[in-house]
């Protein structure tokens, strides 16, 4: 690929508007690194996507608020104790997964060679 072509592709990636899915991925922190970088550069130059993103942000936060409300409802249904047990199990599972990931990363990165 020539330089001019590469520049053109890079520019068009930045000039392309983000769609709903990309905006949601970005807000949830799920975008791959390159995608997030392109979206951020695009946001610098595009007011309409900034508006779009802030309205999506409202939507996302209202969704998580709704989830929090239903969690509170479950809290009263199950009673404090059962929810605490559930949280403890979820917490230890998360710790297991995390330490597994860390170990995989540590050995995968070639440390100790
Ligand atoms: Zn845009």
Task: Please tag this protein with its features.
0% strand, 85% helix, 113 residues, mainly alpha, 2 domains, binds zinc ion
What's the total helix number? 5
Helical content stands at over 70%
Distance between the termini: 37 Å
List unreliable stretches of 5+ residues. Answer: none
Order of helices and strands: HHHHH
Beta strand %: under 5%
Mean pLDDT: 81
Note the main sheet. none
Tell me which oligomeric state these chains represent: single chain
What's the total count of β strands?
0
Q: What bound compounds does this protein have?
A: zinc ion
Task: Describe the protein's architecture and organization.
Helices cover 85% and strands 0% of the residues. The protein has helices at 3-15, 20-28, 33-45, 47-78, 80-108. Helix 2 (20-28) crosses helix 4 (47-78). The chain has two domains: 3-78; 79-113. The chain has 113 residues and is mainly alpha-helical. The protein is flat and about 65 Å long. The structure holds zinc ion. Zinc ion is lined by residues 17, 42, 46, 48-49.
């Amino acid at each position: 690929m020539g330089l001019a072509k590469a520049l053109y592709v890079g520019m068009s990636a930045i000039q392309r508007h983000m769609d709903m899915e990309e905006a949601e991925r970005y807000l949830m922190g799920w975008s791959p690194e390159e995608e997030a970088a392109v979206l951020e550069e695009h946001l610098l130059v595009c007011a309409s996507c900034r508006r779009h993103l802030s309205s999506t942000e409202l939507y996302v936060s209202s969704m998580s608020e709704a989830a929090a409300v239903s969690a509170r409802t479950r809290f009263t249904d199950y009673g404090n104790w059962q929810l605490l047990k559930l949280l403890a199990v979820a917490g230890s599972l998360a710790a297991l997964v995390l330490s597994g990931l860390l170990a995989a990363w540590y050995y995968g990165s070639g440390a100790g060679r």
